[in-house]
User: Which sequence fits this backbone?
């Protein structure tokens, strides 16, 4: 979710691409009360786009401009290589991306989705099936078949035929060719298999011919039953509607009702969606994302199993150059399981390719057969295959790209989120964790530990977990305190590293966990802390409070190269399993971050602060809220040091020179707010303590204004 989003009446949509779908989408958005087209990105001369139904002033060649004027971006270029680079740029700026580009999703979608919000739109067949899947499941059906309806295929169409249809239908020659030779349906159903957790029956799919949709659908249902798992496939029916269908099963208790409702006698029921309206349905997906609706989050998934191989239509000789494989008269695509063809080149990557070996018609094009340009899409595909195959190193050379068979020993990670009444932010923190890049570690589990929640925290966490099985939700109705829940997390952990994040933070970018794990590369390190930083705020009081946090950061960040007590952040802390298993947090503890740091020092191990592993938090927005929050820390030192030797007391000391330098720098950077915050700090130290926060059982009053990150 884009955290820069504001609640406005009209959202600004940037469009990448200027083809058939882009033109239709631009018209649809201009007619909507919710959206406006803010920019259209093209590689062509904007003056040549006379058929683009937008003002010439908003057509641009600059991705940076498009990002700067957009709230959300739609990518529909149909180009895997270019689209990957553009999407990565947009995601790095914090904007969500909606695609209508199945080809790209298959190749780089898995890795891109770790960098931010990336969703394949409703409207094309894969998105239509994903939406239908939600509907039928809500009605109690269990899907067996995710089906596409094709009315005509010609595996080897001629150029004259395709030029005629391209002109007649107003789409590109490559598009009409990929539709006709079956490549498109193979790509669509491969994406469906990956995104919805299905499989395929065979390479190139089954695609039974039939007169009626129900006939072919029931045949596929029998195949799925025989396999024992859902399948993604298609039927070929000249008279059927251009839509999609699902074959599902239902409880036997509903048999009579379903027969009455004209779905047949069962046990397999065919639910058809007899249309897919492409660009007209994209706005539905946009509104869901912008409103924070997580019910639809379809993409290639994090554990893809199916790709679409490049298969020559003719014999290709060594030395031949192929500008673009997708939609060409040289190759077509066939769906296949990745594990069966790890060396196979996805047809979406076959661009600007030089063949170094001959490949016969009908054979699989392998990485040994071609030289491909080094692109981000290629790198992401190699990383995807490496993860699937359990490989750690992908060797590339000027003449070929070859996947190594060495298996890595990635560190495993479990993440815990203690949560008490965090309904406002729990989805945001979970989303920021799910979107993390994980090529250097293996994320095994995310545990939300509810601590006596009386709001919708648990409900929202469980709703999120429905879409991400890696998430578990535990805890109880009684509030026991963070220390108790952290002990439960350590007890449940079986991974090499256990990380806890507070529920009221958001990870800044997709590399936070990667950087925390990287902190353990030095021998003797058993605890690694992230860097908690305040988000931007509005208003005099809020900015004054935030200035105090910034001032304190300047004081502590460089002392002992950052590896000091005050950079031990309880909101983002990673521990090695052996260290975490060797002790428990005392029940009633408030300063868990100080306890971790002193335990490391007492055991003569190493603590590391990772400045770039930033998690955002929200500062209080009023002086009363700040006073409430500050009161918690007044007895932290006495409470913590009862468990450790006084020899460690000097860890609380920071030289005055660091404080003076920090104050001077802060006064230069923010003279007004720094002056105000210094006065505020003096006042806080003189005023009576609010006794309500000084609980000895590890509980404290909540500060509601800090419970949701607002960017």
Assistant:
């Amino acid at each position: 979710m884009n955290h820069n989003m504001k609640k406005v009446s009209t959202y600004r949509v940037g469009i990448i691409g200027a083809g058939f779908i882009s033109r239709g989408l631009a018209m649809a958005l201009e007619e909507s009360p919710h959206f406006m087209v803010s920019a259209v990105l093209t590689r062509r001369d904007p003056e040549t786009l006379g058929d683009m139904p937008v003002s010439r002033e908003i057509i641009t060649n600059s991705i940076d401009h498009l990002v700067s004027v957009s709230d959300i971006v739609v990518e529909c270029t149909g180009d895997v290589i270019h689209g990957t680079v553009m999407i990565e740029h947009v995601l790095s700026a914090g904007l969500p991306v909606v695609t209508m580009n199945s080809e790209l999703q298959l190749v780089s979608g898995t890795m891109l989705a770790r960098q931010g919000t990336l969703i394949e739109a409703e409207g094309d067949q894969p998105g239509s099936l994903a939406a239908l899947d939600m509907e039928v499941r809500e009605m109690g059906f269990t899907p067996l078949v995710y089906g596409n309806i094709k009315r005509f295929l010609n595996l080897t169409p001629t150029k004259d035929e395709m030029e005629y249809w391209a002109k007649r239908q107003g789409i590109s020659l490559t598009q009409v060719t990929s539709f006709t030779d079956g490549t498109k349906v193979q790509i669509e159903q491969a994406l469906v298999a990956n995104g919805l957790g299905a499989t395929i029956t065979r390479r190139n799919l089954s695609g039974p011919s039939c007169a009626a949709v129900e006939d072919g659908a029931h045949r596929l249902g029998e195949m799925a039953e025989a396999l024992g798992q859902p399948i993604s496939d298609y039927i070929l029916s000249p008279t059927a509607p251009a839509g999609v269908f699902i074959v599902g099963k239902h409880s036997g208790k509903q048999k009579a009702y379903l027969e009455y409702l004209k779905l047949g006698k069962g046990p397999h029921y065919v639910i058809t969606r007899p249309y897919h309206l492409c660009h007209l349905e994209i706005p539905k997906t946009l509104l869901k994302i912008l409103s924070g609706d997580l019910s639809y989050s379809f993409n290639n998934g994090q554990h893809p199993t199916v790709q679409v191989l490049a298969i020559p239509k003719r014999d290709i000789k060594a030395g031949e150059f192929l500008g673009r494989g997708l939609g060409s008269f040289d190759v077509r695509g066939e769906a296949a399981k990745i594990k069966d063809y790890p060396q196979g080149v996805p047809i979406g990557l076959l661009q600007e390719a030089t063949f170094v070996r001959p490949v016969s018609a009908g054979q699989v094009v392998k990485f040994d057969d071609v030289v491909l340009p080094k692109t981000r899409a290629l790198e992401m595909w190699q990383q995807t295959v490496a993860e699937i195959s359990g490989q750690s190193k992908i060797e590339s050379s000027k003449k070929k790209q070859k996947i190594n068979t060495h298996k890595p020993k990635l560190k495993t990670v479990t993440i815990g989120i203690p949560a008490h009444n965090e309904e406002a932010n729990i989805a945001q923190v979970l989303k920021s964790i799910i979107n993390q890049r994980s090529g250097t570690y293996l994320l095994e589990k995310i545990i939300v530990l509810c601590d006596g929640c009386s709001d919708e925290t648990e409900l929202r966490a469980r709703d999120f977990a429905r879409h991400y099985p890696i998430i578990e939700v535990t805890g109880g109705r009684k509030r026991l305190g963070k220390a108790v829940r952290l002990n439960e997390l350590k007890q449940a952990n079986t991974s090499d590293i256990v990380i806890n994040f507070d529920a009221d933070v958001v990870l800044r970018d997709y590399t936070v966990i990667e950087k925390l794990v990287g902190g353990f590369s030095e021998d003797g390190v058993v605890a690694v802390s992230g860097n908690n930083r305040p988000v931007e705020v509005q208003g005099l009081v809020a900015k004054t409070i935030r200035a105090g946090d910034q001032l304190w950061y300047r004081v502590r960040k460089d002392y002992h190269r950052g590896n000091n007590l005050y950079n031990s952040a309880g909101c983002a802390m990673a521990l090695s399993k052996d260290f975490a298993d060797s002790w428990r947090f005392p029940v009633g503890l408030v300063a868990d971050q100080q306890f971790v740091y002193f335990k490391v020092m007492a055991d003569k191990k190493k603590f590391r602060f990772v400045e770039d592993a930033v998690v955002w938090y929200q500062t209080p927005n009023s002086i009363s809220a700040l006073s409430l929050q500050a009161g918690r820390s007044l007895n932290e030192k006495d409470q913590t040091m009862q468990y450790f030797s006084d020899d460690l007391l000097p860890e609380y000391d920071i030289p005055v020179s660091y404080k003076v330098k920090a104050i001077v720098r802060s006064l230069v950077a923010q003279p007004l707010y720094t002056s105000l915050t210094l006065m505020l700090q003096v006042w806080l130290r003189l005023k009576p303590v609010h006794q309500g926060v000084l609980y000895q059982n590890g509980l404290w009053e909540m500060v509601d204004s800090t419970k949701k990150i607002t960017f």
Remarks:
- Residues 540-556 form the longest helix (17 residues).
- Confidence is low (pLDDT under 50) at residues 1-6, 391-408, 691-695.
